[in-house]
Amino acid sequence: MQTFGTTAAELLRLREWLEEHSVTHVALESRGVYWKPIYDVLEEAVRCLLVNAAHIKQVPGRKTDVQDCVWIAQLLEHGLLRGSFVPPAPIRELRDLTRYRKGLIQERQWEANRLHKVLQDAGIKLASVATNILGVSGRAMLEALVAGTTAPEVLAELARGKLRAKLPALREALAGRFRPHHAFLVNQGLAHLDYLDEAIDTVSTEVKRLLVSFADALRRLDTIPGINARTGQVVIAEIGVDMSRFPRERHLASGAGLCPGNNESAGKHKAGTTRKGNRWLRVALIEGALAAIRTKDSAFGAR
Known about the structure:
Elements: H1 8-20, E1 25-29, H2 36-42, E2 47-51, H3 65-77, H4 89-121, H5 136-147, H6 152-156, H7 167-173, H8 180-210, H9 215-221, H10 229-239, H11 249-255, E3 264-265, E4 268-269, H12 279-301
Parallel strand pairs: 1-2
Antiparallel strand pairs: 3-4
């Protein structure tokens, strides 16, 4: 059996070897991100099938890399493999960016939570009075604390807008034990948040650039209740715009892991959990559904 490594040069040699032997189909086991460079090199020369590892389990006791390859080849030869959905290259590039942005947004939330924890440790209860401690007023107070101003009366006077109506409560909330090590931690947290905000904006700009050719699809998605521009970007990045890949709407729902399972025995229905699916698409659709519910509730409340 011919073996090849995974460097760029070796993958090119693999493609040449497959073409020399008139190979038309190649099956790849889906494992993390290790299949991606192989798929990218081979997709132009042969038809690649990305296969769910759960569908091609080998017989217990006969597990080796070589035997796995032989087994997958036999399944492919007999037409027993079903390829997973792999979007075209432009969508894959967009997907990398939207997933990276989501990671940055999560990291920003973690940093904001750490900042809350530092303030609680210092006895500063700003979050109990201000809705957003990272807003204009909250940010000014935090920067003043870092600069060495700890007098509650002085800090409270930095409030702006509606927050000025809460000056007595602010003075009480800002009377803590803010020490130098708290100032250091808050300063590091604010600097990290600034970096993350800039990184998120930069990635979002690049996402918009790549979405220029999908502007019509994004515009139509934006008309769906609960789906805003950012959620629409994620939907396009995860499933593309060619819906012919999904025979019916339930196949797409299943791929997103949003189909409840059935668990019935002896006429009794038990709780059925949803299956694992595309977690990035799942989160986006759930966020969209919750937004639609809030919008609907607000509309009814306004009547």
